Amino acid sequence: MAAENSSSGSPFWDNFCIPSHILVPDSKVQTVAHIPVCPVLVFVNSKSGGQLGVNLLVTYRALLNENQVFDLGQESPDKVLSRIYTNLEKLKLEGNEPAARIQETLKIIVAGGDGTAGWLLGVVSDLKLPHPPAIATVPLGTGNNLPFAFGWGKKNPGTDRQSVEAFLEQVMKAEEMKIDSWHILMRMRAPREGSFDPIAPLELPHSLHAFGRVSSSDELNMEGCHTFRGGFWNYFSMGMDAQVSYAFHSERNSHPEKFKNQLVNQSTYMKLVGTQGWFFSSLFQSNSKNIAQLAKVKIMNREGQWQHLHIPHSIKSIICLNLPSFSGGLNPWGTTRRSKGDFTPPYVDDGLIEVVGFRDAWHGLLLLAPSGHGTRLAQAQRIHFEFHKGATDHTYMRIDGEPWKQPLPTDNDTVVVEISHLRQVKVLATHDCKSRSIHRPLITGNHDTQEDDSPEEESIPEGEEWRKFGAADTFKIPDEVDIARFS
Asked: Which string of b and e fits 51-66 if b means at least 16 CB within 10 Å?
């Protein structure tokens, strides 16, 4: 058992430091002179951000009780949280007041890329913890869309004592905000003979791969089909943007030594935008890449009715967006502070997902303008994509930054992707938060007052069942998966 941190006794660090008997089951119960007002558990992906993850791990362990700081490369968060919360319940039954207070005020800090942050969100969502902790995200990845959406920035942070202290001060002041999560189900016809697996397991995002194929006893299973299920917090996208992301991830997996810092990663990504033809896709790519050619799309509107979604033939990328941060902080839906036509302002906790399309990368550059946005298509409770035999045998899809190459039907079979609202989890938001809550629309200090008045271009209820997000007992990342891919 490790000793208490080297800064023990400092009034500032006492606000966060958790006694070892809370963290280590069956250890000697200590007399607690000061119950922390903002107790934190820190999870660090040591493979994120080049050396930054390792350095941050060292700093937190030096300043806090090292038993409250965890390397995600060594221990999975579901095991950590199950162990600690079981111990908290045991201590509470024994009348331990500090344990009860700490459980009520506990917070989580996760340092890594968007994949790492989504992993922790999924774990907390699945475990159904008493007083589930709110989560603050340290941006150690390339895009850092999740941290940026809640005011934690998108630049990789400093790892020295002063930087960590400044971050913890923000954690103390941050407000809790609930955000929606979204369930995704993907179903495709099993081959008539042989054992052909339609997608190599490691090609799938970790959330879908973690669920694996739905078991024969699962209520979502359909005879004669391969069925996958998973979840996301930020976005699902399909088309050219996912193709560029897939090329980037393939290059990084082949040559990891070239991707050691955020600036190099972003520069490489922009080069791929050009070489993959995203800038001139509307001129030189066939109509088989158009979303309208690839899929029939239905949405369930806010009244709970299914309806066909018209997608303009020029659209080559479609994004189903939950948070106002995409591809490094851009907002595809744009800024709206009042209802416009059929659309209401986007909130992260209203049970609706925004659907927006893009023609090419030039169209995407509109997002750099204060009131820029893509082609707004819908706000929906559920979305249903149905793919039939067409002019192409594959497309590209992406969940929260993790892309894969999706086979499409080559005969009379069908591939179905359906997205539906799952439930909510708590995050911590700073005064610079870009996201807005339906309960507290003005929670943020975001001063983007440019109202978008530009004309539009071509234009399961929660609680029915407990659908696992896939991060707790069903989420077992295989040993052969390197968590560096989550950064």
From this structure: ebbbbbbebbbebbbb
